[in-house]
Amino acid sequence: MTVEEFEEFYAQAAGRLTGQLYVMLGDHHEAQDVVQEAFVKGWSRRRQLERDGRPEAWIRTVAWRLAVSRWRVRRRSADAWQRTGPPGHVEGPGPEAVALMEALRQLPRGQRRTMTLHYVCDLTVEQIAAETSLSASTVKTHLSRGRAALSRQLQDPRIEEAPDA
Predict the structure, then answer these.
(1) Among candidates 83, 71, 1, 80, which has minimal Cα distance to 33?
(2) HSE on the CB side for 127, CA within 13 Å?
(3) What gap in Å lies between CA 61 and CA 38, rounded to an integer?
(4) Alpha carbon distances (Å) from 152 to 46, 73, 114, 155
(5) Which end of the chain is more exposed for a tag (fewer CB within 10 A), N or C?
(6) What is the pLDDT of residue 136?
(7) Which domain holds residue 104?
(8) Does residue 33 surpass a pLDDT of 70?
(9) Distance CA 148, CA 155 (A)
(10) CA 31 to CA 64: how far, in whole Å?
């Protein structure tokens, strides 16, 4: 992959990957950081990425692994984070996005990642299985359970259920 091709790949994929990682992680700044770091790592491997034929999947996987590593470091140093205080005020997302993100946070991490890869990244079950090292049946189980959990959590209480006929 030439410098120009890598720059074009970055321009086309960075925003999409940041959005996907945001849904997986629930933190936009963290998603931006890990995607940027993954692209930096990909720069030195751009020829390998071209040969493998799946550079976006590679960047997404590296970004996910970076996020997990960062989470582990933060967990070990929770006292230091508490001393820094909360971040400054930022205008929040709309109520629908908040409800969806809150519902996604209630899912186990594996289900949330699988749901994101399928519905946000538009990957097939087989592609998700390859990217996550899960079996296809486990991916299908995560999708089924995730959909059921989100359905329960996102029901509009203003809508009455139709009585059984």
Answers:
(1) 71
(2) 16
(3) 9
(4) 43, 33, 18, 6
(5) C
(6) 95
(7) 94-156
(8) yes
(9) 11
(10) 9
